[in-house]
Amino acid sequence: MIITIANNKGGVAKTTLAVHFATWLAMQGKKVLLVDLDTQGSVARFLGLPPGDDLAELFHVIINLSPARRPELRSFITGVSGYPSLALIRGWQKSARLEGAFAQPDTPSATTVLQEAVGPLLQLPKVVIIIDTGPYAGTLQAAAITLADHIFVPGKPEGASESGLLDIAKRMHTAGRTVTGVIPTMVNPRTCEHRRAMEDWRRALGAAVYYEPTQRLYGLTNRIIWGELPGRGRPIWDVAPRDPAAEEMQAILRRATYDAEIA
């Protein structure tokens, strides 16, 4: 199964969601591969690892070498301390060159290369691949969306973030697909602006929006700890498991796990 986290806007907690979804599933005993398509190396840093260009190097190998000459996939995978069933394909600065590479004639499409990259793992039982995309609507994001079994879109309930969320939803509708979950982030439920935004999202996107006050599901509220975690290099489960923010994240991921039909 492939789960893609996407929004064309940065700073909406895509990486926060991807890291917590991956570690949450790993804690439930699932085998998880977390793939970073961004150029900032944020996923690795969030997990206390140095950034690396594993993704770009893996794609370069697939584009330029025949299958018989390629190194094994494990050469491009990094383990995560404390999570033995979680592995990471790190993305960093060289990933910025991939958009140009895929524009060259006779180069396989980004979708084809990404499928070849993760395909061997999809043959294994009960493996979940989570893809964190960058804050732009490029060929890598399009490939991750095309291959995804489920798409989750985090978004702040305000201007620029909303346009990115609705753009993803529109693209899914045009392709005859739907977004599995829309996850409000940095929400202040006390403000009229944010409550109205939630209501607008629900009217436009229906039950896919993870905002159900009657069930105590408010998305992720605006808490300082979400900004602190990347600097600590660990998810909230390891830093403050009893923090109210951890309970909010658990509520979201229980719903997401159910909606994605992860057994």
Can you describe this structure?
The chain is of the alpha/beta class and 263 residues long. It has one domain (2-259): 3-Layer(aba) Sandwich (Rossmann fold). 44% of the residues lie in helices and 14% in strands. It contains 11 helices and 7 strands. The protein has a 7-stranded mixed β-sheet, with helices on both faces. Helix 7 links the parallel strand 6 and strand 7 (181-184). Helix 1 crosses helix 11 (244-259), helix 3 packs across helix 5 and helix 5 packs across helix 6. The mean pLDDT is 92.
What percentage of the residues does DSSP assign to strands (E)? Answer: 5-15%
Query: What composes the largest sheet?
Result: 7 strands, mixed
Structural class: alpha/beta
Q: What is the CATH C-level name?
A: Alpha Beta
CATH architecture: 3-Layer(aba) Sandwich
Number of separate strands: 7
Rg computed from alpha carbons, rounded to a whole number of angstroms: 18 Å
Give the CATH topology.
Rossmann fold
Shape: globular
Low-confidence stretches: none
Strand order of the largest sheet: 3-4-2-5-1-6-7
- Approximate helicity band: 40-55%
What is the CATH superfamily label? P-loop containing nucleotide triphosphate hydrolases
Beginning-to-end CA distance, first to last residue: 11 Å
Query: Which sequence of SSEs, written as H and E, runs from N to C?
Result: EHEHHEEHHEHEHEHHHH
Q: Number of helix segments?
A: 11
Provide mean pLDDT, rounded.
92
Structural domain count: 1
